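Input structure tokens:
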């Protein structure tokens, strides 16, 4: 049986989203995985209302997640100092379903260190954001609700897929 990996991340918003998905699926194949990309399923032409399209996409993505054995998640900052909210939901859904989740981050360090390095305008005094709100201080690269249940690797999809391959090999 082929191991299926759901490819979560904000790549679906890229101008070359379909090509990006094909590259990720080809990379999955190098590791013996079948990549499941959210844009593999397209909204049927007869669904034209925006909210109906959104509901269809939501259900289609959950179906793909249910088919997956694991999740590869791009958890890099997206539109600010946090990962894409849709990706965060997909990670939580997968964890609740008992699936293996590996996320990747471009840089190492704690959340506060990564934020300071990549988006210093969002930082205030050490340990606080620009609004004076406390930053998590658990020496994790992301919020604990992502960093604890998911295995996080520094690098890109290749490094994360290597980690996923090791996880599935150890289970056999």
């Amino acid at each position: 049986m082929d191991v299926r990996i759901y490819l979560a991340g904000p790549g679906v918003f890229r101008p070359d989203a379909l090509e990006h998905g094909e590259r990720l699926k080809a990379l999955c194949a190098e590791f013996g995985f079948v990549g499941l990309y959210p844009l593999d399923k397209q909204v049927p032409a007869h669904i034209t209302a925006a909210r109906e399209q959104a509901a269809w996409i939501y259900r289609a993505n959950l179906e793909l997640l249910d088919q997956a054995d694991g999740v590869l998640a791009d958890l890099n900052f997206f539109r600010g100092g946090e990962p894409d909210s849709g990706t965060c939901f997909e990670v939580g859904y997968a964890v609740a379903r008992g699936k293996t989740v590996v996320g990747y981050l471009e840089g190492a360090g704690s959340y506060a260190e990564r934020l300071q390095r990549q988006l210093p305008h969002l930082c205030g005094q050490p340990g606080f954001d620009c609004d004076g709100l406390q930053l998590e201080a658990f020496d994790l690269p992301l919020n604990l609700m992502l960093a604890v249940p998911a295995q996080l690797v520094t690098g890109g999809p290749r490094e994360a897929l290597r980690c996923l391959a090791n996880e599935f090999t150890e289970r056999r």
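DSSP finds six helices and five strands in the chain. The longest strand covers residues 3-8.
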